[in-house]
Amino acid sequence: MDNSENGSHISYLEYKGKYKGLLSWLLTTDHKKIGLLYLYCIIVFFFVAAILGLLMRVELFSPGETIMGPQTYNGMFTIHGIIMIFIIVIPALPAVFGNFFLPILIGAKDVAFPKLNLFSWYLYIIGAIFGVLSQFIGEGSPDTGWTFYVPYSAQSSTNVIYALIAAFILGFSSILTGLNFIVTIHRMRAPGMGWFRMPLFPWALYATAWIQVLATPIVGITLLMVIAERVLRIGFFDPALGGDPVLFQHLFWIYSHPAVYIMILPGMGIVTEIFPTFSQKPIFGYTAILFSSLAIAFVGYFVWGHHMYTAGISYGSRWFFSFLTFIVAVPSAIKVFNWISTMYGGSIDLKLPLLYAICFIFLFYDWWIHWPDTWFSSNRCTGT
Ligand SMILES: [Cu+2]
Topology of 33-376 in CATH? Predict the structure, then answer.
């Protein structure tokens, strides 16, 4: 966005770059175009995953076999989950909205490493295609579910390795996006924009980016370990080989709980921008919201055991992980109170974005008041 060259107004939807047509997309280093590339691909993959979900529901219309056998169903169940988690909700907010808006919001011309940003998209698309193709090639669709639980994922004769490689590649894409955002925020804020003058959506992306950079490698290594287990019969996880299946669950959820915050923190950041805009007054509790983002990201690292209550972990660790999980409600509540306080006394313009943001509170609150379920069940959170 350099308006100084010709002095004219350039809309946000015009882009830099020397190529025309399709190449202007495939070779672009423009953060807005890359954000849109992610958006278009996510929409396409969303339809793929939604169709799989519909087919699963059709199968469940009536008892017994309706349109597919159990193996096909398990395959669709797995690929649906992999697409929805790794190809849609993980990149949807950081890679689409983050890429598009982060440089604009902090007054930078682009992200710190535009070529690396494009490379992240190529990794994304390679991983995504790999994941979808795993359904059709080789030994048949992986049937482990998106969580790849061992020892079954080490033993299943289906294409589990393709899906593991797909998730590994997609993870790398996510790490590089996070790295790019961290460096962009540290080094490229506009002159005069100190840390505590930075808008709150970039702050949410900053907290998210640290999760992407620090937590994703753990699941990446874990997926490689499952591949090694399958190929080399090493015995990390399979009790028949002297391994420990619960170790896999720990490693998997050490990433996959923080991943929940990769999904939601940027969303919280977006509504944090919507409330003050449509209440026509400054955000209430800027500093509290900022630190609540960091606190959610930080505490989110220490709650993974709430996915494992039924895995045979000790009473003490169940108590510990339950307690820490409830602690996450504190910074979450701080956000909700500050959003409502922002609206209080404001000149409220009840346009569509604000309606969505208000719905966000109710949707989030519903999730939140159901958290006591985690005392009794291991799986409240495994859906996400
Ligand atoms: Cu969780």
Answer: Cytochrome C Oxidase; Chain A (1.20.210)
